[in-house]
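Hey L., structure's done. Input below.
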Amino acid sequence: MTDAAELLVVVGARPNFVKVAPVLTALNQHSEVRARVLHTGQHYDRSMSGAFLDQLEFPDPQFQLGVGSGSHAHQTAAVLVGVERVLSAESFDAVLVAGDVNSTLAAALAASKLGVAVIHLESGLRSGDWTMPEEINRVLTDRLSALLLIHSAEAIANLAAEGIAADRVVLVGNTMIDSLFSLLPAARASGALARHELEPQGYVLVTLHRPALVDDPTRLAAVVEVLADLAEAIPVVFPMHPRTHARLGVHHAHLLQQIRGLPPLDYLEFIELEAQARLVITDSGGVQEETTALGVPCLTYRTTTERPVTVDLGTNELVGLDPNVLRARCADLVAEPWQPKPCSIPFWDGHAGDRAAGAVTGFLTRPRIAAG
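Output:
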């Protein structure tokens, strides 16, 4: 392996692990590349246990920063310093980052300032909403990247509109769907439905976490009132962050008696509940993709989405921020006969990791890259 290209793979939060795992697995078949993992520790997640990582076949990180929680500035600065330190001490030909969390942008900044090529997995997503920190992270990371791996064709137009050369862009598909498919058997065996006394397609699953919603007491209460009303017709299961639970408990504790508020779930348990739900209500980007892959109806409580392909070709519907619209669409979907909708998005087929690994290997073994 002495002649192999050296690749530093940076992860910072659970979605990063899920997206990167299939690429790392596929890179093991490419002797031309040696990949090592740096975990920034941006998020501590109890579901990032040994069992979960074993299911993903995720290697132990060689570098740990332990950044932890904090403001956007704190996290970005701490990761920037930590990644710079590793890149200065070791020799790497490229840094691979995924998604749009603070660690993604910080690692890309550190690498680019040291002249190390940046590879961005899940490039080209755009919501057009600059109030979202993720939009800032993803746009700036794409500008810094030498190789942009995209998960759907719509990203091609997004990147072209920003002047990014087409020869830097490769359509590989959605690696998160690879992980989803590989984890489904273990999720099915988790016993989550029985443990929560739920029936297949007999409940609504909710995941809401964005600060714009959770930190606005009036807006949050309006949504939960809709969920409480919906719970009169069908069980509503809402795994919620402790902060969300606490904010509701101050003024709206009575609403929590009508829905099934749960603590955060580990990933396998969440996948099982997601796959068997009658309907999913979310403000999460990843959940829009997962429900599309699983064929489960999804209502996204946001005014914009960076994943319009899930609306155009998937099961997702953007309902905006009017609770009355949400109420009406929930009633409609719950009343309709349930029918699965197979995923029809090209390259969301469980083999995106192989294509991404091939693109990374091709990029790193170009003579101009290998020469450093």
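The first helix runs from residue 14 to 27. The first strand starts at residue 5 and ends at 11.

-- N.
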